[in-house]
Amino acid sequence: AKEGGRNQLQFYEAAMHSRITERAMIEAELRHALERDELSLHYQPKVDLRSGAVVGMEALLRWRHPTLGMVSPARFIGVAEETGLIVAIGRWVMRTACFQNQQWQQAGLTPLRVAVNVSARQFRDPGLSREVQAALSDSGLAAHYLELELTESLVMHNVEGAVAVVRELKQMGIALSIDDFGTGYSSLAYLKLFPVDYLKIDQSFVREMLTEPKVAAIVRSVIALGQSLGFKVIAEGVETEAQLAYLRRHQCDEMQGYFFSKPLPAPEFGELLGAERAL
Ligand code: C2E
Ligand code: CA
Ligand code: CA
Ligand code: CA
Domain EAL, which positions (predicted)? Predict the structure, then answer.
């Protein structure tokens, strides 16, 4: 048993060590990702469930490293956040999304809102609203075509501070949504303080709603609650026609997911929009 314990400890230490080296490696490589032009954005359509039309898109960060290949956000967003690199990367994401969206509009495509994910670190940065303003004025994009996605845990962490920032952003005319709704701790009393436009039902609920009656009840309740508080409700991670039908039947406003489209590189997203307009 003693031997087994020692082996287990060694195994654990090796695992810890490889996690640390992985983290250190990601950190070192991420420091150069921006200047080496390894980052890009993919865009996933958001679809209005009543009309079936694409009404928006979410910009999602992609990192192609010359030797590591595609590194998923799950592997590097946390590191970017801990090291503070997310501030520069997040600024790049915001500016790139605004410029790309304005370019599509100038090419004559149906104007859509583009959503950008905002991390806790960026949200706490006092320069955030100034940067949003600069991205809008430099790109020429109208404020209501930019949306910021703030996670539920981010806004519920320090409600008073978050409400003040959200109000300031809202006054600029941009759209705001609460992301991953239902996964964190949310107080309904606080929810009404946030002048946001959308609640995004987390994909874990969508995944289980057709097999777990209680999850279905949660989904229906979030739709009803969100709408009665004046929010639009969007479901993410919709992968099947049956999920789509259920959400439509329960009057969810918008959806996003592989069933309609995976996140696409900008040129392919532009083609999808062009083809849609031709229909
Ligand atoms: P998120 O904001 O919740 O984004 C949704 C994630 O679900 C994306 O993963 C998207 O590709 C994926 N997804 C979309 N439709 C489906 C579907 O039908 N089924 C399944 N299984 N997944 C679907 P992705 O792109 O890997 O991003 C993961 C997370 O990384 C994001 O979760 C977000 O928290 C973070 N992230 C991505 N880009 C950025 C960014 O620019 N800034 C910040 N701060 N975080 C980002
Ligand atoms: Ca998001
Ligand atoms: Ca989400
Ligand atoms: Ca998520």
Answer: 23-277
